[in-house]
Amino acid sequence: MPLRRSLFTRLLRSLALLALSWLALSWLIVLVLRFVPPWTSAVIMERQASAWLHNEPNFRLQHHWVPWSQISPYVPLAMVASEDQKFPFHHGFDVDAIQDALDAADDGKRLRGASTISQQTAKNLFLWNGRSFVRKGLEAYFTVLIELTWPKQRILEVYMNLAELGDGVYGVGAASDVYFNTVPARLSQAQAARLAAVLPSPRRFRADRPSAYVLGRANWIQQQMQQLGGPAYLEGKQRTSAPRQR
To answer: Strand 164-166's sheet: what is its strand order?
Structure first.
């Protein structure tokens, strides 16, 4: 009996040490990435591996990092207007959006996403596509770490550089070159809105050859950008409270 108790105690200590080591390592990685540009992401590697496994000869991965200072201010504003208008105010989770999604599901409607830009950044950088409780749990964990460790501008900077904006096209640097033959700093308000408009389904829609849906959504995004007050919305100059509705 004492031997079993001793083995059980050692096992618990080992598991606790393993858990603490993982927590420390994951936080250290998040801390380092506050200052060091990530050269790739889990989602990018997953897409590349899928292309290899399914023998997609025409697949071409395009991605390169662009710092915040070299990106048009319309790009982050367009993505916030499109994806997460409460981004400057929440701490990683939009409780109202989550509740609205749950209410819609209770009414028998299709469960819609309620992920914030912070959550999407955590998923794109560290996790994989798909839906499972394990992935959502890890997404929430990394979202908390990112929100505690990074300023809002860094979260947006990483998001803009990792977001899938076409099949194999990741980040605003590659997208501005592929779709508009320009650099991110020269993207206009309309071009930034088109990039944000394809985010719901970037492998289906294109920013350079927009469908009627993309054009309509881009126009809506531009209206939201203006209503938010322009790029100053993300600089704190005109922000007094979160928008009540999108």
So the answer is: 62-63, 169-170, 164-166
Which residue range(s) make up the domain with 172? Answer: 41-234
CATH code: domain of residue 146: 1.10.3810.10
Residue 180 lies inside a defined structural domain of this protein? yes
Residue 55 C-beta-side C-alpha neighbours within 13 Å: 0
pLDDT of residue 237: 45
What tokens appear for 237 in the block? 């100059």
| Range of weakest confidence among 6-15, 103-112, 224-233 | 103-112
Residue 10 inside a domain? The answer is no
Mean pLDDT of the 173-201 span: 95
Does residue 28 sit within a domain?
Answer: no
Q: What is the pLDDT of residue 162?
A: 96
106, 81 Cβ separation under 8 angstroms: no
Number of domains in the chain: 1
pLDDT at 218: 96
Mean pLDDT to the nearest integer, 207-229 = 95
Whether residue 185 is contained in a domain is answered as yes
Alpha carbons 116 and 186: distance in angstroms, whole number: 27
